[in-house]
Amino acid sequence: MTVTNYDGILFVSDMDGTLLDGRSQISRENQQALQYFVDHGGLFTIATGRMERSVEPYLPLLPVNAPLILYNGAVIYDPESRRRLFQVGLAEEIRAIVQALMARFPELGIEVYHGERIYFLQKNEETENHKAKEGFVPGLVAMDQLPGPWIKILLSWEPARLAEVEAWLPERPELFRTVYSEPHFLELLPPGVSKGAALQKLVGILGRPDLKTVCMGDNPNDQEMIEVADLGVAVANAHPALQRAADFISGRHDAHAVAEVVERLGRAAFPGWQAYRRDA
C-alpha cells in the first residue's frame, strides 16, 4: 500500500545546494512534492545559514508549517509571528580575534551578522558574489562602530586561502566553533551551535517528541543535523563527508532531490523506514 499520510514526520531541508537548484530557484517538482507532503499531514521547514531577509523571498513558494532554523542553528524563527523563538550569539571577546584576522589577512572577506543585518568588515570577490546571490544590502562600518551581540561571522575567500585562515585561528572552543557552509565560506558560530542542535531544540518547541525527523543537506554545516535525524539524506552533489554520514544519498539538487525524498517517504522506500510507516 502506498503511504499517503505523512503525519508524525518532520522534514527539514537545507536550502543552497539541496532544495534550491543551480540557479538558486525552487523547481516546480520540489514545490508540488512539498505541498503534497504538507497537505497529507507532514511538517516541513528549512535549515539554512541564511538570515531572515535572505529566506523571505522563498517563503511564498514553500508550504512551511514549522519554525525555521536560520544562521546555521543560532536562530529559530517563526515566520508567521515574525518572532525569534530561540537565539544565541557570540561572546564579546570574539572581537579581538576578528581584529587579529583583519591584520593578518587583509584580503579575507569578513561578514558579521547582527540583528537582521549583515555588515562587511572586509570585502573581496566572494563577499560581492554573496551579496549578489542573496540580494542583501550590507552595512559598511568600522569594527568599533559595529553593535553586538554578533550572531555569527562568515569568512570568505578561495578555498586554499581559507584553509590557511582555519589553520591560523586559535582553538578557543569556549568562544566559537568553525564550520564550512560552502567551500569558500568558513563560519564562526557560538559554541554548541549547529543545525543538529537546533533541530533538537525545534522538536522541543513543537512539543512533539514523537516526531520522526527527516533531514537533507549538502555541506559540512549539515552534518550534525544529518546525524541527529531519524533519516539523514545527502544529495548526490554533497561533500564526501556528508555522504559518508548519511543514511541515504539522493539525486542531485538540480534533479528535484527533495521531490525524490518525499516520493520515497510515500513508498517507505528507505532502509528501516518501514518502522515509521503511517498508512492512510
From TrEMBL:
GO terms for cellular component: cytosol. Pfam families: Hydrolase_3. GO terms for molecular function: magnesium ion binding; phosphatase activity. NCBIfam families: Cof-subfamily, HAD-SF-IIB. This is Cof subfamily protein (Haloacid dehalogenase superfamily)/HAD superfamily hydrolase (TIGR01484 family).
